[in-house]
Amino acid sequence: MKQIALVADMHGNLPATRALAADLKRRGIETIYCLGDMIGKGPSSKETMQWTLENCQVILQGNWEEGIGLKQYEKDEFYYEQLGEEYMALLPRLPMEYSFTLSGRRIRMIHGRPFMADAVGVHREESHFQPLLQNHDVLIYADAHKIGMRLLTGGKMVINCGSVGNGLNLNMVQYTILTGEETDETAPFDVNLITLPYDREQAVRDALEAGERGLVKADLFAQEVMTGVYARHPKK
Question: What number of CA atoms fall less than 13 Å from residue 94's CA on the CB side?
Answer without folding.
Answer: 33
